[in-house]
Amino acid sequence: MTAAPLEPPAARQGPGPLAQPLIEALDLALSRLVARMLPGDRRAAGVGAGTELAQLRPYEIGDDVRHIDPAATARTGQPHVRLHVPERALTTWIVLDVSPSMAFGTARRLKADVAEGVALVFARLGVRRAGSVGVVAFGAAAPRLLPPRGAKPGMVALRRMLAEGVAPDGQHDPHGLAGALTHVMRMARAPGLVVVISDFRDQEDWQRGMGALRIRHSVLAVEIVDPREAEVPAVGHLALVDPETGARVEVDTSRRRVRERFAALERERRETLARELRRLQVDHVTLSTDQDWLLALGRRLR
Predict the structure, then answer these.
(1) What's the DSSP call for residue 212?
(2) What is the SS3 assignment for 15?
(3) How far is CA 3 from CA 6, 233, 252, in A?
(4) Do residue 102 and residue 122 come from a single domain?
(5) What is the DSSP string of 59-128?
(6) What angle do CA 295, 299, 302 make, to 5 degrees?
(7) Residue at 246 is within a domain
């Protein structure tokens, strides 16, 4: 049975509906991911509201009576209060690809649309429980930086950055991802979550920075792909423009050997990427423009 041809979206479609039940399910999955990947003890300094016991001590005038521990009081005959380690707010860093290749899409939406939705979801999860979110956008002539902010200010700043769109064709920085990872390494003083959202195309020398971040942070790589990047249809002569460099290439897609070589090169590129991320022990999620990306993200993180 022949698959129906893909129809390119007319323009940016946006990420689509962000179903709250799916986002709630992602919250639990993300908590498990962070707990599994963050090295070392993540407790905050001092005492306060939280779930982990810091110490028991005799009651003093002015202490909150709700913190009196009945068992310790009964055992010692003197009122005792419980002091807890506060739950530290997690800082989420979003490393977002805005290179020209992200404006490509032949299915439901563009790669930039999927990337936008992923960024919004992780930002929304990141500002929960008094967390904050910072953004480093790369792939254009110069990186764009948003320092970590909490709640509404963080979300507003992210939405404004997303509204600026991707870089024009030909304005591509092959070292953009490497530079963005270096920026996060310098600015992220405490261990947190780093979400890299990219198609990882034509990016060089990013492995060292990714590995360095992985030592201290929980790192998740979200790869955005489009079906037409895996194979080219047999439609005769095509004139193609590389959005990253602006170079024009003419190809005869009616030749089977050309199509097979194209598919082999793309398959090799993606296998190399997956292998490098496994070597660095970075969780890797692949989302396509022709699928329900939010559902696929939830399934992958379970």
Answers:
(1) H
(2) coil
(3) 9, 12, 22
(4) yes
(5) --TTS-GGGB-HHHHHHHSS-EEEEEEPPPPPEEEEEEE-SGGGG--SSSS-HHHHHHHHHHHHHHHHTG
(6) 135
(7) no
Domain shared by 185 and 97, yes or no: yes
3-state secondary structure of 155: helix
Can you tell me the distance from the alpha carbon of 137 to that of 102, in angstroms, rounded to the nearest whole number? Answer: 12
pLDDT along the chain (302 residues), means of 10: 46 79 82 66 45 68 84 89 64 94 90 96 85 91 87 91 87 90 92 95 94 93 94 82 76 87 93 97 95 91 80
How many whole angstroms separate alpha carbon 178 and alpha carbon 203?
8
| Cβ-contact 211, 182 below 8 angstroms | no
Judge whether 154 and 132 are in contact, CB under 8 Å: yes
Cβ atoms < 10 Å from Cβ of 25: 16
Residues 100 and 134 both lie in one domain: yes
Of 58, 89, 198, the residue nearest 136 (C-alpha): 198
Structural domain for 159, as ranges: 20-36+90-221+288-301
User: How many CB atoms sit inside 10 A of residue 104's CB?
Assistant: 20
Residue 109's CATH number: 3.40.50.410
Q: How far apart are the first and last CA of the chain?
A: 33
Q: How many domains does the chain have?
A: 2
- For residues 202 and 78, membership in a common domain is answered with no
